[in-house]
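My current task is to audit a protein record that another person submitted. I need someone to confirm that the token line plausibly describes how this chain folds. Take the sequence as given and treat only the tokens as open to question. This is what I was given:
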Amino acid sequence: MNFDFTEEQQAIAELSGQILGDLVTHERLKELERSGAPLFVADAWAELAKANLLGICLPESDGGSGLGFLEACIVLDQIGRTVAPLPYLATVVCGALPLAEFGTEHQRRRWLPGVITGETILSAGLAELGSGVAAVTPRPSTMAEAIGGGYRLHGEKAFVSYAQQAAALLVPARTEDDRTIVALVETTRPGVRIEPLLTTSGLPEGLVTLAGVEISPDEVLGGTAADGEEIVSWIADRATVGVCALQAGVCAAALKLTATYTSERHQFGVPIATFQAVAHRAADAYTDSNGVALTMWQAAWRLSAGLPAADEIDIAKFWAADGGQRMIHACQHLHGGIGVDTDYSLHRYFRWSKHLELTLGGASEHLRFLGARLASEPV
């Protein structure tokens, strides 16, 4: 596998990095956090739309650039580097990509143009509460009761990213004949209630309650005959790697910030970076950061190429969770007391990293998935 970007991919990284670097500064984020408003940098979202970075991985026939999931991960990596509070993962990866892959022509025409122009925010309710924790499953407990040709939805979806800002949600539900469907639920529909949740990262999330929400057959992703379990697994795979891409960006930026700090901070007349203990800790953090990035790019590339990627996805998520938390703790340690000062930017990377560590499963959960597959393979 070649980890070098093509010229086009490098241009995507540079363009998205420039837009986000100019508009999502530390001072801008501090101002937004003090306002108490939901964390969303609207002008940065609009600029990404103008540069067609919201439609970059969508088919040309739907108005996109016709590139792939790997290019979406390049943008997500840049979002992580700037800790930019934007619904790219929710809207593009969890909403628009499944619509482009499985949606009917009517569904694509209804939702994708607004995503590409930045006017429409989408999200997906993949996680449900069970035994006190959130779990993603292709066999949800949310129920879809048949009414005529459509359905009436009952249930809850937890930790739905940007739920309050979204125009519509992709909602997996279980029918009475034990099939999974994925419903396209407009958030203004009667019976939809969204309760804001307090998150580690500060990013908007919601608990979505569906109390008898009625949907028509046209509002079932891919139609009523579509394989909902396949769709949910398809979305979850890309959402998981998208989380890893955000974590890779967070790790890269936090490490760069730490390298600068330890080079400029002096004790006994020399930079603390010259101290052996500091250098060793920084080297371990560098190794972990590279592990997060390389395993993520491998999984993203295999998904983009249409290759089997189940093992690579779980390996990437393990590194994003285990290596990511180890790396961010090292950065925090090397900064000393200033690392917990909210006037300094490291605290934001720390909060994001901890949030991403457990989003869509922590390290142990993905090791169990990987171990179960290995155990099932013949010797």
In short: The first helix runs from residue 7 to 23. The chain has three domains: 7-120, 124-226, 229-374. The mean pLDDT is 94. Residues 7-120 form a domain with the Butyryl-Coa Dehydrogenase, subunit A; domain 1 fold (CATH 1.10.540.10).
